[in-house]
Specification:
By secondary structure, this protein is an alpha+beta fold. It has helices spanning 28-39, 47-53, 62-75, 107-110, 143-157, 168-172, 181-188, 232-258, 269-280, 285-301, 306-322, 327-344, 349-361, 365-378, 383-395, 399-412, 419-432, 436-449, 454-466, 470-481, 490-496, 502-514; strands at residues 2-5, 8-11, 16-19, 22-23, 86-89, 93-96, 100-103, 127-130, 134-135, 164-165, 192-201, 204-213, 218-228. The protein has 22 helices and 13 strands. Helix 13 runs parallel beside helix 15 and helix 15 runs antiparallel to helix 16.
Length: 519
């Protein structure tokens, strides 16, 4: 696909912008913003639209967004004063207003995910190869460590059931070879390449890793790890776990972003799951409704697709927790989807996390914790699995262990889109341990990330009251009651908030009553 406008040509497939025939230097993220504006030129694009599609829902300051818009304008020869191509609509967003002509590539190269020269076509689900990490040490004597990191990452990433990972022997065929990632994509049929290097100086180790979309050459993620050499296997295990944990959420964000320019009807079952992933962790009713629609469509197209069964179960469980669907009606439905996901693939942690959530909502505490623990056992490097277990433990009043798993989740994936949920489990645990000031700190931080997160709002209100800040708690309750859906009452809390014992429930309700809640 190419777009012609003004004196520019924007080639989406080649990720290239030209002006009057000359290539324009443009950063990858700026390129993505421009593409999104042009694709959606028929409407005003809001700040939230851009954050969802280009930044994967991550929190970005207004100044950072403004810088990117200015960079887009500079790239296409526009300015904030002229606004001949990109117009700003105050408090609403931006719109590409230039006249655009589309040129579609030949059919053979336009098919999504297929290169006409490929030896292997890209599979429907995301595919990845871990290239042998390079030994960059001055003496080149860390090859065994670099190979160990590579092999462990292949093993660890292969645990991710929705990810197709190339086997060791094929990956190591590229050792000590300088090969373009696009060539690797064609030769192996993979969309993503994970590559890196190892360097040792004295007793210090530096490991670099980067995740690349091999079809376009665009970097999705990169990180550097500096460690004391210490016990070699301990360092190797820590790095492997950290890299694998970081890769999973970034892959999900990348897969979700790939669906941003397609209509719902154009998406495959996996793409619908990826889109739902990018929707539901924003923790609003509208986004959960959209995710449930996506997942229902995925199952219409592929009824035995375990990831869709599992994620739909989890989404329904969370929606019941928030009160967006009726708990008595929909938790049994969520449970059936979770059980079906496990029956289809009993090695998929998503199914066990979903079953744990449904059992937690039914106050089947032992079953819930067993399912959450099973998910962690299947994928120890999954931040999401640790985060779900943290919630289960917190609602059961097992505070110290809940905090431990929540902190593991945050350490494994410090930039995770689900960070608000990780923090939420820790906050609940502190509340059950009557550490109310700590709960206030965590819920305040949580609400800065996800201002509309009703669970954090309720906990913040109860904590303020329990800490003796009654006037502040009552003012906050008055504010959140205006937006809480369904209406917040004591009866609703008893029915929907899954504290696992009567004592814990009464502790929570006590805080809300002190804040002035009744009914």
């Amino acid at each position: 696909m190419r777009w012609l406008f003004d004196e520019h040509v924007l080639d989406v497939d080649q990720r290239e912008l030209r002006r009057a025939g000359a290539v324009v230097a443009i950063e990858p993220q700026v390129f993505d913003v421009l593409v999104y504006l042009i694709r959606n030129r028929g409407r005003v694009v809001s700040k939230d639209d851009l954050l969802c599609s280009v930044w994967g829902g991550r929190i970005v300051s207004d100044s950072a967004l403004a810088n990117r818009i200015n960079a887009v304008r500079t790239a296409v020869g526009d300015s904030g004063g002229d606004q001949k191509l990109i117009r700003t609509f105050p408090r609403k967003g931006f719109r590409f207003v230039g006249s655009v002509t589309e040129e579609t590539a030949p059919l053979a190269s336009a098919l999504p995910g297929v290169d006409a020269t490929a030896k292997f076509p890209l599979p429907e689900q995301p595919s990845l190869v871990v290239l042998p990490f390079a030994d960059m040490s001055p003496e080149r004597n860390e090859g065994h460590f670099a190979d160990g990191i590579t092999e462990d990452l292949i093993t660890e990433l292969a645990r991710i059931r929705w990810l197709f990972v190339i086997a060791r022997n094929s990956a190591f065929a590229y050792k000590d070879r300088a090969v373009d990632v696009k060539q690797i994509s064609r030769e192996l049929g993979v969309r993503y390449v994970l590559e890196g290097s190892v360097r040792r100086s004295g007793q210090r180790m530096r490991i670099n890793a980067q995740l690349v979309d091999a079809t376009s050459g665009v970097h999705q993620w990169a990180e550097r790890y500096d460690r004391d050499a210490g016990e070699i296997f301990a360092v190797q295990d820590e790095i492997t776990s950290s890299v694998a944990a970081a890769v999973e959420p970034h892959l999900l964000v990348a897969e979700g972003n790939r669906t941003a320019y397609l209509s719902q009807d154009e998406l495959s079952a996996w793409q619908l799951v990826a889109r739902a992933q990018s929707q539901y962790w924003r923790l609003t009713k509208e986004d959960f409704d959209a995710s449930i629609t996506s997942l229902t469509q995925a199952l219409e197209r592929s009824p035995d697709f375990a990831p869709a069964q599992a994620l739909l179960a989890f989404a329904l469980g969370f929606a019941a927790h928030m009160g967006w669907v009726e708990r008595g009606e929909w938790i049994p439905v969520a449970r059936r989807h979770a059980e079906r996901a496990i029956a289809l693939d009993d090695r998929n942690p998503w199914g066990y996390s979903a079953l744990g959530y449904a059992a937690m909502m039914q106050r089947r505490t032992e079953e819930s914790l067993a399912a959450f623990r099973k998910a962690v056992a299947l994928t120890p490097s999954s931040a999401a699995a640790h985060g779900h277990l943290s919630h289960g433990l917190a609602f059961a009043g097992i505070a110290d262990e809940a905090i431990k798993h929540g902190e593991i989740a945050m350490k494994l994936s410090p930039l995770d889109p689900a960070m608000a949920r990780f923090m939420g489990g820790i906050a609940i645990a502190h509340y059950t341990a009557r550490r109310f000031e700590e709960t206030i700190r965590l819920t305040r931080d949580n609400l800065r990330i996800r201002p509309g997160f009703q669970g954090a709002q309720r906990l913040h209100c109860a904590s303020l009251a329990q800490a003796g800040r009654i006037q502040e708690a009552r003012a906050y309750l008055s504010t959140i009651r205006q937006t809480h859906r369904p209406p917040l009452t004591i009866e609703w809390v008893r029915n929907n908030v899954p504290y696992q014992t009567p004592e814990l429930m009464e502790l929570f309700i006590e805080g809300l009553r002190k804040a002035g809640l009744d009914g």
